[in-house]
Amino acid sequence: MATRAQPGPLSQAGSAGVAALATVGVASGPGPGRPGPLQDETLGVASVPSQWRAVQGIRWETKSCQTASIATASASAQARNHVDAQVQTEAPVPVSVQPPSQYDIPRLAAFLRRVEAMVIRELNKNWQSHAFDGFEVNWTEQQQMVSCLYTLGYPPAQAQGLHVTSISWNSTGSVVACAYGRLDHGDWSTLKSFVCAWNLDRRDLRPQQPSAVVEVPSAVLCLAFHPTQPSHVAGLYSGEVLVWDLSRLEDPLLWRTGLTDDTHTDPVSQVVWLPEPGHSHRFQVLSVATDGKVLLWQGIGVGQLQLTEGFALVMQQLPRSTKLKKHPRGETEVGATAVAFSSFDPRLFILGTEGGFPLKCSLAAGEAALTRMPSSVPLRAPAQFTFSPHGGPIYSVSCSPFHRNLFLSAGTDGHVHLYSMLQAPPLTSLQLSLKYLFAVRWSPVRPLVFAAASGKGDVQLFDLQKSSQKPTVLIKQTQDESPVYCLEFNSQQTQLLAAGDAQGTVKVWQLSTEFTEQGPREAEDLDCLAAEVAA
Amino acid sequence: MNEWTNTGREPDPLPSSLPGPTAPGLGEPQAEVEETLKRIQSHKGVIGTMVVNAEGIPIRTTLDNSTTVQYAGLLHHLTMKAKSTVRDIDPQNDLTFLRIRSKKHEIMVAPDKEYLLIVIQNPCE
User: Is residue B79 less than 8 Å (CB to CB) from chain A?
Assistant: First the structure.
């Protein structure tokens, strides 16, 4: 390339060189001492010096570069101290009242002397005062209407046409569980059914997807949550009693009775958790069935529920407080369809029967039952008093949490009877519906309010303070008048009421404030009601 | 019969462990305490009566233990708070009586240096 750039000098040099070469070649023509033609000869070397290289010397310098040195440092960190701490709540220790020491009594007497006159004066003034008549304070936001908060259902159960037969709230009031089964045809045993639970406090609550589902090989008729453990459920189906722990996902079954001679031979209608008489933190399961047996089970060992006490209802042994229509011969069992325990006396309970008459029974009854049913534990007759019957079988009883003698019963004749335990005929009888009534429950906060579920698809809320003839609020649960089978108040969140119907849905209703806040003197009004009608 | 001279001061309490009369003229303090409490308790509408000492420990009560302990602890705190409120507003002032009216009943507290008398009444409406 350089040759092209400077053609001038090179061509001169080249031609000079070539001329020299040519001269040498010509000079070696024929002559003396010179080899002749066609003879080998060595010629000198011709060189062509480079021009451009001499003109332009190559210049070079050395340079170097290097990145600056990287600063590194090492440090180590490790958590070394940790402290273990444990927190546990203990059962409250009962504190006792301290009697005053000997030295204090005169000073106590002096103090009382000083304040007595003032206190008596204030008591008198208060008794006669009208200062606060009609004065009411509202601390919470008032809810005027009853609204449906959630509509829960389990699609596979609804696809099979199963009804919701029973509902229960757990001890913390955040989980509602429902049992699926069928109440209208008698084929219990081949129907696969479910127990579903929804946790209403979770943010990702999906109404069609329960947080826990247990598959049960037969229809479940009844359900009850454990009173203190938030996740144990006792359900009944075709005579067997099962206890599940819903917090275990793989195998929730804790205990079962198995099919022995002891288990019920008929479908079990209701199950209740009872505290054990000696240890109040352990619980037993009481089951009531239409074969006339009331059985008390205890969970022992692994997986087995054992019978600890049993009662049997036999027609002959019922106390003759009222004149019952039929006097059959033989030892006929009386089927029990509902049970409710009194909140004031833990051994007293009311049984609702298929014959329509409630029975007052006691766990402490000692008389042996005249029955030929086989049992590992001697069966006793629990009935102490018989009340006047309804026009049909009783489906639900409920004892008042505010008055020790009052209870409600509802049956297929569409009437709700308010009974006092002291007399056989009911105090009042209300006709709520022309169809069956499936459930009745006292409100846990207002002494004069109760709710009833009817076969016409509605839930009726009665406030005896306002009107004793017609319901205060009528909630329509189902559009096509399919019956509502069960309902339960939530005793922790007292504005919630759950009801389950024949379409397989559970609706959680939020009640208005008038149903959740006790007015003044309601308990006294309840006492008056009990006393005035009885007189 | 005991003879007693009018020394002009109250007699000293007996060192024995059994409650006994300190002076016949004044009557037994024990019986006086009981009578006073019974008079208050039998007043119209009174549900319960209790006496609590300066530390909030109940000394005498007509209600059951758990309720008594609850009332005593809570009302002791509230009375101290009320007393300090009154004193903060006006240091010359002091709390003489505390009444709490609720939907169901009225709670009256008569405070003192050493004791509190708490009476729960169901007023007529």
Answer: no
Question: DSSP strand E in A319-399: where?
Answer: 336-341, 348-353, 359-362, 379-380, 383-386, 394-399
Task: Report the distance separating Cα B112 and Cα B79, nearest Å.
Answer: 10
H or E segment at A243? strand A240-245
The predicted-structure confidence for A461-520, as pLDDT tens digits, reads as follows 888 877 777 888 888 888 888 888 889 998 888 888 999 888 888 889 888 877 777 766
Q: Which of A112, A120, A521 is the best substitution to test chain B (most B C-beta atoms within 10 A)? A: A112
Residue A107 with chain B: CB contacts under 8 Å: 114
Q: Is residue B54 part of a domain?
A: yes
The token pair at A208 is: 């069609």
- CATH number of the domain enclosing B55: 3.30.450.30
Reported as a single tens digit per residue, the pLDDT across A131-178 is 877 777 777 776 677 888 888 888 888 888 888 888 899 888 888 888
Closest to A115 in 3D by CA, of B121, B72, B90, B51: B51
Confirm whether B32 is domain-assigned: no
0.80 cut: is pTM over it? no
ipTM over 0.90: no
Domain count, chain B: 1
A249 touches chain B (CB under 8 A): no
Domain containing B84: what range? Answer: 44-119
